[in-house]
Design goal:
Length: 419
């Protein structure tokens, strides 16, 4: 049975072969193995590719300008597994070009960063170089970077533990059916920046090794530029992860009855994002987006943010389920979910609309009853809308349901604005 390293080697060789194959099918196969967040450095000054589009343009230029036959060989290919789904491949390629009967050989060194997605190894980063000489490894910068990576890993572990504790506190405070979606949304939202931190830290470690071996000033400066970019990205995504955890902890420390004056649009935006991330965690292939129409004069309201937030997540989850259910049985259906705010005198109105199958009259009269649900056994507690209705009443507001003429469902939450 092939080892993970063997799988990576096979993937690298396939990527290389498709790269040099001039057929349109091979080019598309090559580009399909390139991750959306790809970056790369070529052998010359300024050969930097910020995204897959830049790489596509370079490959098309290469094939358009190559009029001589050539062959490619990979005499050395080493693989190091960073994790089950992350690897670095290093080696040399030998490109032999037949120019009017004379062979011209280029043998650049390369480093590939790869990530396994949906059972396939994807190219995240590459760096090609042709050093003039080799030098012994210097440990100062390498030691510093390793130390920084260890600090980042420890910080990620500490923040992850804080997140677990905050989630446990939320479970103790409120046993709402929407808690699962909230937790999934936060976990999905924090996963992305942590993955970026890990990937860029791993790639930077490899660049330090290249820097230690490189003597060409221009190549060294190019590698340093790449390291600076990676460091900036690590800091950016680290700060994003830190902000998510801090926001989560702030909500976890709030008691359900605590009220404070909040910007209604900001609250709606925050919990709409969490609901959407929860959907992506449950259904990664879903391309559903949420249309937001937030009135500039929506104003502020005195509410318990965790309670109103859970109410909004529950309404949005129901909307997501409704449109996805209709999409499964109706070809050509385009699902739509909209969240809007509107100021009406001393009240603010929040609407969650969907174009799902709608709610029959007999069911609509009972949607706020405790334990009433139309979902199959085991898929719904029947408490979500009942508890949401209670939350609205506790805030001196109302929660109503409407079925527009064109179909679908609209839930209308009305809250008093803060004086």
């Amino acid at each position: 049975m092939p080892s993970p390293s063997d799988d990576v080697r096979a993937a690298v060789r396939a990527i290389m072969q498709d790269w040099v194959d001039a057929s349109p099918e091979a080019i598309e196969r090559f580009l399909s193995a390139v991750a959306p967040d790809f970056t790369g450095h070529g052998t010359g000054p300024g050969d930097y590719y910020a995204d897959p589009a830049g790489l596509r343009a370079m490959v098309e230029r290469e094939h358009a300008g190559m009029s001589y036959p050539f062959t490619l060989d990979i005499p050395r290919l080493d693989v190091r597994m960073l994790a089950p789904d992350a690897a670095v491949a290093e080696g040399r390629i030998r490109v032999t070009i037949d120019v009017d009967g004379e062979s011209v050989v280029e043998a650049p060194r390369f480093t590939f960063g790869l990530r396994r997605e949906n059972g396939r190894w994807m190219l995240v980063h590459f760096h090609f170089s042709i050093p003039d000489a080799m030098q012994e490894e210097g440990g100062t910068m390498d030691d510093l970077l390793k130390s920084r990576n260890e600090q980042l890993e420890a910080e990620i572990e500490r923040r992850t533990e804080e997140l677990r504790e905050a989630q446990a506190q939320l479970v103790q405070q409120e046993k709402l059916a929407s808690l699962g979606a909230l937790t999934a949304g936060i976990a999905h939202e924090i996963k992305n920046p942590l993955n970026f931190v890990t990937n860029f830290a791993s790639l930077s470690r490899e660049l330090v090794q290249e820097l230690a071996e490189e003597t060409d000033p221009e190549e060294r400066e190019a590698i340093l530029d790449d390291l600076r970019v990676n460091a900036e990205k690590i800091e950016t995504h680290g700060r994003r992860a830190d902000g998510i955890v801090r926001s989560m902890m702030a909500h976890a420390r709030s008691r359900p009855g605590d009220r404070k004056t909040v910007d209604v649009n900001a609250l709606v935006t925050e919990y709409t994002d969490l609901a959407w991330h929860g959907l992506k965690a449950r259904a990664p292939s879903s391309d559903l987006d949420v249309d937001r129409q937030l009135a500039a004069d929506a104003g502020v309201a005195e509410v318990s943010p965790p309670e109103i937030g859970r109410l909004l997540i529950n309404l949005l989850d129901n909307a997501f389920d409704a449109v996805r259910a209709r999409a499964r049985v109706e070809d050509g259906f385009v699902p739509r979910v909209r969240v809007s705010t509107e100021r009406k005198e001393k009240q603010v109105v929040i609407r969650v609309e969907d174009n799902g199958p709608g709610i029959p009259d007999a069911v609509r009269a009972r949607v706020f009853e405790p334990f009433f649900t139309t979902k199959p056994t085991g898929e719904g507690t029947g408490l979500g809308l009942s508890l949401s209705h209670d939350i609205a009443l506790a805030h001196h507001g109302t929660l109503a349901v409407e079925t527009p003429e064109g179909g679908g469902t609209t839930f209308v939450l009305t809250l008093p604005t803060a004086s």
